[in-house]
Amino acid sequence: MRLILLALSLFAAWPVQAASPELLASLDALFARRADASAAKELEASLKKELQASAEDYELIWRSARLLAWQGDVAQDSRLKKVLGKQAWDMCERGVKLAPERVECQYFAAVGIGTYSQAVGIMKALKEGLEGKFNERLDAAIRINADFDLGAPLVVKARYHYELPWPKRDLSESTKLLEKAAAKFPQNLRTHYYLAETLLAADKAQKAKEAILKVKQGSGAYNPAEAQLIQERAKKVEAEIEEELK
Question: Which long-range contacts (CB under 8 A, 24 or more apart) does 128-137 make?
């Protein structure tokens, strides 16, 4: 009887999953092609449809948040960025309740909070008390799996230390975390891009140049949409570094 009750309790604690492996593979393939507007639109429609049928499916929830986080990252309008950040955050709060020991929703909730904070302004976000909520989710992601998505939790933590206003800003800690992530996942171009910006802000333009060259010359095979975005953004930083080195 005890074994039966234990099995039932474990089953009840496990997140509901209705999506088939084939469906999830299809969604992941569309996400890989998200730089193509038609693929992104198809993915958004598919996720919306599947979530309407299976609102408590953790695998669908975190994939939906992943898309929202990406859309928020590339959004140019601050109002849209704010909305998308909040949607990713809210979506993953549902996921955290379903599976608190899974890394995906802990991570994308933090990303959503970060995107929202960027949109409303860091000072306002600090006044709203979002720093604690952000760190709660991100630190949980780091604890669960710091290597998730090529070290993304550490990269976001490093960026947090970079973007904070003085006197909270900590370029040394940001550099340390980015160098750690870059050593383990050198293919992640965002890590090198953020490292270049951090080093430039720390008056280390020559080292910043070395980092930005890794972005410029790096392969995008690991994540074509991400690499294309980061290499385009890196052009501005490269120009700033060259200006500083004159």
Answer: 134/110, 134/160, 135/110, 135/160, 137/92, 137/96, 137/106, 137/107, 137/109, 137/110, 137/113
Please state, in angstroms and rounded to a whole number, the distance separating the CA atoms of residues 93 and 90.
Answer: 5
Could you give the residue ranges of the DSSP H alpha helices within the chain?
A: 2-13, 21-32, 37-53, 58-74, 78-98, 103-120, 122-127, 130-145, 148-163, 171-184, 189-201, 205-217, 224-245
Q: Is the CB of residue 72 less than 8 Å from the CB of residue 81?
A: yes
- CA neighbours closer than 13 Å in the CB half-sphere of residue 89: 21
Q: How many CA atoms lie within 13 A of 217 on its CB side?
A: 7
pLDDT, tens digit, for every residue of 59-118? 999 999 999 999 999 999 999 999 999 999 999 999 999 999 999 999 999 999 999 999
Tell me how far apart the alpha carbons of residues 113 and 194 are, in angstroms, rounded to a whole number: 19
Cα separation of 200 and 237, whole Å?
9
What are the tokens at 33?
A: 């092609």
Q: Which fold, 168-246?
A: 1.25.40
- Quick count: other Cβ atoms within 10 Å of Cβ 50? 20
6-34: per-residue pLDDT in tens? 554 544 445 556 799 999 999 999 999 99
Task: Provide the b/e sequence for 89-105 (b: ≥16 CB within 10 Å).
Answer: bebbbbbbebbeebbbb
